[in-house]
User: What shape does this take?
Amino acid sequence: MTRIFVHGAERDIDPDGEFAAWLDPARTAIVSIDMHEGHLSEDPSCPCPAPRGREIVDGIDAFHREARALGVRVIHVRSTLRASGADDIGGTSSSAWRATFPQHVGPIPGAADHAIEGSRWTAFVTEVAPEDEIVSGKKRLSAFYPTDLDFLLRQLGITSVVLDGIMADCCVLNSAFDASNLGYRVSVPSDLVRGTDEALERAALSMISLHLGLVLDSAELLEVWHGRS
Amino acid sequence: MTRIFVHGAERDIDPDGEFAAWLDPARTAIVSIDMHEGHLSEDPSCPCPAPRGREIVDGIDAFHREARALGVRVIHVRSTLRASGADDIGGTSSSAWRATFPQHVGPIPGAADHAIEGSRWTAFVTEVAPEDEIVSGKKRLSAFYPTDLDFLLRQLGITSVVLDGIMADCCVLNSAFDASNLGYRVSVPSDLVRGTDEALERAALSMISLHLGLVLDSAELLEVWHGRS
Amino acid sequence: MTRIFVHGAERDIDPDGEFAAWLDPARTAIVSIDMHEGHLSEDPSCPCPAPRGREIVDGIDAFHREARALGVRVIHVRSTLRASGADDIGGTSSSAWRATFPQHVGPIPGAADHAIEGSRWTAFVTEVAPEDEIVSGKKRLSAFYPTDLDFLLRQLGITSVVLDGIMADCCVLNSAFDASNLGYRVSVPSDLVRGTDEALERAALSMISLHLGLVLDSAELLEVWHGRS
Amino acid sequence: MTRIFVHGAERDIDPDGEFAAWLDPARTAIVSIDMHEGHLSEDPSCPCPAPRGREIVDGIDAFHREARALGVRVIHVRSTLRASGADDIGGTSSSAWRATFPQHVGPIPGAADHAIEGSRWTAFVTEVAPEDEIVSGKKRLSAFYPTDLDFLLRQLGITSVVLDGIMADCCVLNSAFDASNLGYRVSVPSDLVRGTDEALERAALSMISLHLGLVLDSAELLEVWHGRS
Assistant: This one.
């Protein structure tokens, strides 16, 4: 049996039962979201700080290493914005978080530099292996729009995705919605995502577990995959 | 000043300030999500019960009436699935909630009848005025995919949407993400959405307020619109 | 060997060779485009006349009957526009053909009635079998946007499409481009499409044969399918 | 009056009449398609030769220079494919032209190198000015999928596009269909596109003129813009 969390409560499911399509390593890709300097740097000029994300860098790296060894594909997604500004602050509709998030955390001094193509802020903090794929060009909250992630997943024959990274209550959750709507089976390792705060992290995981897919510990997921590879 | 809620805390914003684009009634449409019999019926065979939604039927109707009088467009979105089953339980990838939600609430006896085209379950419970628009063909959680809602909003010259209906922590939240990613300014009247339970409702509104747009009382929104019409 | 046409020239290909993925009846759907009264009616008030399309009604019906017997799915796509006019002449950007096509054929008196939801113009002229699927809501030239055709094809497990109907040089060609870009293998039976005139029909088939997929006689296609069912 | 071509015939239209939305330089972007080494190089190892395109390099550069001076935006689109091969020959569904086009022109020796990210084949042959925008990541025939071109155009407030480049009967035509379906007004300068051969060039321009928008000489377009800037 496999231990999952449903709205915070533990449940045991049969990995060969109705969730089998969620747990097939041969058709699964890990989609690791926004683990780059622009969110994770400790530099005070970090343009869009998500400090809780630093806690999971090592865990994500270890998870990806073990997954690769089992043949599971790893895809790293990062935000990049054209230097002209057209994609965001210089365009007809800038990112909503630029107006809303400071209502909670106060002004974000470096925000204008967020995700600028070619800048140091777009460097990944987590390990990228030669056989991994990279999706650049995330420009809003979803990993799917306006990127080629869906195209890439189709080309790889993927039918199930595992989402890790930041932030649980925005980009990860939004990508989980999109992936599920597009027909992919979605799982989220609860130990490898972080959000705005612990309460919203838990809430995001509850929503995923109720409406979208499996929330479970990464070790549990690896155990199922080991049994099938 | 206009009173909004940010992660549950009250804030006062200048409606002519940086949120002005969120508050222009001439370019705003209300998108009312899934207020149909398939979620709201008290019949025990209701295929996908969202009982908390019944609390807001009268409030939504009153809000829409006043909005229409101010020239704000109202668009009603509903789920419809082909009778063949191909869109969902008979297709290659059925709706994830069919597997996940019963882990929390137990078996849903009528689920196979959910949203079937032409069935009584697709009838709106809220009032639909002759000048309103209808978007049918929602098949998963988002109001935008695979429907023509974005196409319709572009054709109407809309740049700002107000989302009401059910459920706050899945279809409303997912649609808020999509709308914001597509460049629309998003507001959600906190009194006119309902979710799985009160905790997830509050969490969904927190996420919207932090990452996507304005969360405020519908009366507050109407007051701003009155001042501008 | 299977006889195909490449830029008008005959070629013989091995149906088990590099085009095998184009020719698998088990994963193929026929997508029949816009064979409805609004294009085919002989009534002088026909809103968007495509008179050459009448020549292929019987041929399409016969092809579909034989295909169904072999287990190939048939999907009928039709244009429908909201009665409010928002989708087209009452919206921010009306269909381009309303301005361009009359430069060639002169005024089109009934054009304002084209494809209005619920009107007699949306009735199919070709046979629709109970097991067929229908995609309504085509609003511009492509069968894919803003409809749920891609969603439906994914749900049906389809990887190859055969396009018939009208018009070869606009809606069929546009749909062939979209299908191919989305990863579907595209074939077009040269005897079961019609265009603006014979020259543009031939040119559209040339383009499809050079850039997108197989152009061949419907009898040839049926023969391959017979050999595989 | 402005001279246009409709299915090859000359027509004079009033630039302030029903085509006014096609001719507003302030809301227009030129989208220049695939004018890179991978199509235009004279090197025998050129991976996807479109030799007729070389004839228009100078004309396109001159057109863009004059357009920029009038404030019209220029966007250069190019194909790029991941080095892993997943986007194309190593994926579940490779580009259709790899199978179809050699049926007409014979084997294409360098085809495997086409558009590989970071290779010399992705260098633009036409001039790119500092204020221009670049869209990389075209992977099939359309400039819109799976790229962020539509997102960028929305952000720039563009409602009308002018397409130049190669090839008239595939990528330009496909992009014209997509742009028009998405609500953009489309024009194509007949002297600044080239196709597989002259016959298909003419046919593509006929299709655009009948179904999508304006086909006219680039000098004619510049003259209208001059009158409005």
Summary: DSSP finds eight helices and nine strands in chain A. The first helix of chain A runs from residue 37 to 40. The longest strand of chain A covers residues 73-79.
